Amino acid sequence: MTDAALFDEMWGSDNALRDPYRTFHGWLDQEDPARLRAKQREAEDLFRLTGITFNVYGKADAEERLIPFDIIPRIISGAEWYRLSRGIEQRVRAINAFLHDIYHKQEIVKAGRIPEEMISRNEAFLPQMIGVEPPGGVYTHIVGIDLVRTGPGEFFVLEDNARTPSGVSYMLENRETMLQMFPELFSQNRVQSVQNYPVDLRRSLSACAPACAAADPVVAVLTPGIYNSAYYEHAFLADQMGVELVEGHDLRVVDGRVAMRTTRGYKAIDVLYRRVDDDFLDPLNFDPESMLGVPGIMDVYRAGGITIANAPGTGIADDKAIYSYMPEIVEFYTGEQPLLPNVQTWRCSEPDALAYVLDNLEDLVVKEVHGSGGYGMLIGPTATKKDIATFRKKLQARPGNYIAQPTLSLSTVPIFSRAGLTPRHVDLRPFVLVSPGKVHVTPGGLTRVALKKGSLVVNSSQGGGTKDTWVLED
Amino acid sequence: MAMLGKTANGLFWMSRYLERAENIARLIETGQRIGLTRLGNSEEEWTSVLESAGSLGAFLAENGTVTKEAAINWMLRARENPSSIQSCIHSARQNARLVRTAITGELWEAINATYMDSKTLLARKVSERDMPHVMRLIRQNAALVRGMTHGTMLRNEIYDFLRLGTFLERADNTARILDVKYYVLLPSVRSVGTSIDNVQWESILRSVSARGGFRMEYGATGGPQEITHFLILDKRMPRSLAFCVNKLKTNLGYLNSGQPQRCPAQRLVADLESRYLSHDVAAIFDYGLHEFIQDVLDSLSKVSRQIEIDFRFYE
Q: Given A231, A243, A247, which is nearest B6 (Cβ)?
């Protein structure tokens, strides 16, 4: 049923049903596959009707696409989750301390734990943020930590998303869909709720409001607009939080505050949850061509007139070259050993590492330092000879632009296919909210699944799907 | 309560496009119907239908001559025609996405379902035998959207902007139908009611869903004078100019409540009402039906532009 070498979250490595899946499997055994197939279709209709779609860039014919949803949940025990959430919390605290440090005294560089050029020569380092105190001391209000699993107790952090992590709407809608289609599952299993996320998010953002804010801070979500691939999510979150969804052209600086144009004049915003990248945030301070941002918002920000979530310049913390230093970063700021390990990483900027990577390209995964979305990467074991040769040239031309990691045998979870249950690789992105003194990890997250047999690429832009993620109360 | 100017704009146009889709559907059905009676000249009839829909010029530029098939296809599904039913539904949905946070989930889903249905229904040219089915589904969807609007939306400013869009579009539509057909209502060509006249009158009433209401009110006796009164001045008739303008007045009043002064759009509407809708039908004929309609159309577009300014739709 499963490849013996792989770890399946339902069946383990030795084809023995694992505990968290026991109740679920009992239910599944009694179900008529024809009914489940009908339910799978029903789920898709539901998604299409509610408009949970994403836009694919450069595809005019398929302006909006569904992310395939699979009805078999990914189930995590309460004990497993407890370990994970503590590790995530530790890491997120370290990331915020690191960001504060590198935009102020740079103690970690002075201590020789990170080479100076990793900061100063990093494209993601934002000199405009030097010396800036973000309101409440929070840099990353929302974080998504990408985890992978290779065995019963083996979880690794694959990536820290500290800019504008997306996907939380799928976490919520996947649960909503499961609740509607299979209510009985939620009476049989004690699944921790994720549905409070929008309320938690609003509270968490409000708690980070600047000193000048009203008692009930005005929060708004900034979107690049309806053609952005994640527009649905932006609208969804604004709707669920009960706040305005704004675009750059709705905003301008009025009397030292960022304000939105309403039917009754301009109204100041206290906290802006922006889903626009740093570069586009402020044409006066960053990319002058940008139509998506607000001219002068950075000046208001530096003067303490608005909270921008996440703070500008947080990208340096999820840069893949900095990633390789995360164990040192965690240790340096928390004084503790990291609870969640990194995946072993070779920095191609270092000659020894580069030599090793060039010798072992067919076994490694090579990624661009600033890439995301599964673009611009090489997966050695599945690449053709020609792909490898092309990539070798790119790597030799700009070694500093790449890191390499071993090809992990990611855990699998069965999907419900035409032929019945069949294992597919998954990852997990839990969502973390940070407010002054508080780190909150929502129990669950987004499980992405590679729908193609054997594929390790789970990104929705590359044909990945999603599953509901359950954290059980033990 | 204040909302984003952009949101007000999106709500206004969302409801204008929904109303327009429905009006176009009604015009197509009327054209169909008149064509089947074989009393009128089909090409002439479709020309006036296209004119009422406000897209005769664009149609001729694209198609050359007027035929029934081409006219139906143009109004039903042509992408090049921004006022085809499919284009209207697409635009309404784009606006609904833009204002997704302002409307209820139920209303959004109704609009989204309408869009998905129309995409399937209008993917190919619709044959004559499929027309009744397609038109019925379009009508049902329009009713669903209207039901969700009335049944689930709070009566606040959001709703007021939806209503403004609906009634501006509707008044515009009624006025345009009168503009195209005014000559059959003129006293000079009034006859005792030849079959051709009857067909023309009936076509006007059908285009504004007023046939039943009119017959209920006037039995078999009503002629052009009564039709003119019914469509322009009767405040009980939901597509008459007086009804629509009255709705514009009340909704602008809600939006402006608590303000020390009337906004410019309110003043324009009050002016439109006192100048054109406070007289009897004889006075309208004295003034000249054609000139009257032209003036009203002009006033309506001024009101629309003023609403955009008063409520900061754009920067």
A: A247
Burial of B26 (0-12, 13-18, 19+ CB in 10 A): buried
- Identity of the residue in B4, B100, B255 whose CB atom sits nearest the CB atom of A262: B4
Using a CB-CB cut-off of 8 Å, the residues of chain A touching B315 are 249, 261
pLDDT band at A463 (very low <50, low <70, confident <90, very high): confident
Beta strands, E only, A293-443: 307-309, 346-347, 364-368, 378-379, 402-406, 412-417, 420-429, 431-435, 438-441
DSSP for residue A361: G
Tell whether B309 is within 8 A of chain A (Cβ).
no
Query: pLDDT per residue over A272-326, tens digit each?
Result: 999 999 999 999 988 888 889 999 999 999 999 999 999 999 999 988 889 999 9
Angle, helix A33-50 to helix A168-181, in steps of 10 degrees: 130
As for the ipTM of the complex, it is 0.83
3-state secondary structure of A211: coil
Nearest CA to A76 out of A226, A179, A183, A189 is that of A189
Going A395 to A399 to A401 to A402, the CA torsion angle's sign is: positive
- Per residue in B189-235, pLDDT (tens digit) is 555 556 667 778 888 898 999 989 998 988 878 888 899 999 999 99
- Confidence band, pLDDT 50/70/90 cuts, at residue A3: very low
As a 3-state breakdown, chain B gives helix, strand, coil percent values, each rounded to 5, of 75, 0, 25
Residue A156: strand pairing partners: A148
Contact, A192 vs A444, CB < 8 A?
yes
Nearest to A368 by CA among A407, A404, A330, A408: A404
Instruction: Check A261 against B4: CB less than 8 A apart.
Output: yes
Domains defined along chain A, listed by start: 19-343+408-471 (no CATH), 344-407 (3.30.1490.270)
Question: What Rg do the C-alpha atoms of chain B give, in angstroms?
Answer: 19
**How many Å apart are CA B41 and CA A112, to the nearest integer?**
91
- Distances in Å between the alpha carbon of A146 and those of A98, A137, A234, A431, A452? 19, 24, 20, 9, 20
A470: which strand partners? A75
- Chain A residues within 8 A of B113 when measuring between CB atoms: 49
Check whether the bond before A310 is cis (ω within 30° of 0): yes
Per-residue pLDDT at A60 exceeds 60: no
**Which chain B residues are Cβ-neighbours of A49 within 8 angstroms?**
109, 112-113, 116
Mean pLDDT (whole number) for B112-116: 95
Report pLDDT for B188: 58
Cβ neighbors of B241 (< 8 A, separation 6 or more) are: B171, B174, B175, B231, B232, B233, B276, B277, B296
Closest CA to A123 of A15, A231, A16, A277: A277
Instruction: Give the number of residues written for chain B.
Output: 315
This prediction has a pTM of 0.89
Query: A44, A69 in Cβ contact below 8 A?
Result: yes
d(CA A206, CA A363): 47
Cβ count near B261 (within 10 Å) = 8
Residue pair A268/A244 in contact (Cβ under 8 Å)? The answer is: no
| Cβ of residue A250 closer than 8 Å to a chain B Cβ | yes
User: Which H or E run includes A450?
Assistant: strand A446-450
